[in-house]
Amino acid sequence: MDIQLKRGLLDVCVLAAMRSEDSYGYKIIKDVKPYVELSESTLYTILKRLENAKMLTVRTVEHDGRLRKYYHITEDGIRRIEEFKDEWKEVDAIYQFVIKEGES
Amino acid sequence: MDIQLKRGLLDVCVLAAMRSEDSYGYKIIKDVKPYVELSESTLYTILKRLENAKMLTVRTVEHDGRLRKYYHITEDGIRRIEEFKDEWKEVDAIYQFVIKEGES
DNA sequence: GCGTAATACATCGTATCACGAAGTATTGAT
DNA sequence: ATCAATACTTCGTGATACGATGTATTACGC
């Protein structure tokens, strides 16, 4: 899938993946994999960005003798998802324009 | 609208705008405006990129004593629009994931 | 006649961002 | 013992949207 199309989807995908319960890096990648391919370096960049934007909080937990970072979505993060749903109306309008104008 | 979401839409929008008939910079901006806001600097960057990718050809025409560049979509450009339609199935699946996981 | 908006195209610099590459460290199966 | 899987981190790079700025002409109101 085109890299450019993924942008704008990734952040909100990651947020959605931790919406119902807190999650951690490796799990997020696996959960999202059926929909978008997401490399580790990309994910950790996104998580850092979302943390700076206060859309999630981090908690380090020891799990089987190894440290694991759990990510928890904040109110701002939830609001971001809601905003995204609204923005999607505009995106869909653009899509309609493309398929209408771009008829074969 | 979020910049990131626009990426991947813009190129194909510009191509769609010249699908039914050849167009030029200023007209493309006006035609696309109801759907996406597009600055001149961005458009000319996109047109240059699409030209390099052989998705369009350029023709300079004198119009009211002033030069005007007409852009014509190529076979490759049309193919790009068709590809986009296919990719949209994946994009929609991602959207479904976000609204399902991100339920209030 | 003069200013201003609209038309039309072009260039430069910057900030954002996805990703590959490479690294560290542990657990568990072959 | 070796290798895959789990788990997180850092660095550098290329792509790219956009604001700022510039050039030049036409058209309209005052």
How would you explain this protein's 3D organization?
2 copies of one chain form a homodimer. Chain A is 58% helix and 17% strand. The first copy, chain A, has helices at 3-6, 10-17, 25-32, 40-52, 75-101; strands spanning 23-24, 56-63, 66-73. Chain A has a 3-stranded antiparallel β-sheet with strand order 1-3-2. In chain A, 33% of the residues are buried. Chain A has one domain: Winged helix-like DNA-binding domain superfamily/Winged helix DNA-binding domain (Arc Repressor Mutant, subunit A, Orthogonal Bundle), CATH 1.10.10. The mean pLDDT of chain A is 94. In chain A, α2 (10-17) crosses α4. The first copy, chain A, is an alpha+beta fold. The interface between A and B is large, with 39 and 40 residues. Chain A binds a DNA duplex (30 and 30 nucleotides) through α1, α4 and β3.
Outline the fold blueprint.
2 copies of one chain form a homodimer.
Chain A (H helix, E strand, L loop, with lengths): L2 H4 L3 H8 L5 E2 H8 L7 H13 L3 E8 L2 E8 L1 H27 L3
Helix pairs in contact in A: 2-4
The structure holds a DNA duplex (30 and 30 nucleotides).
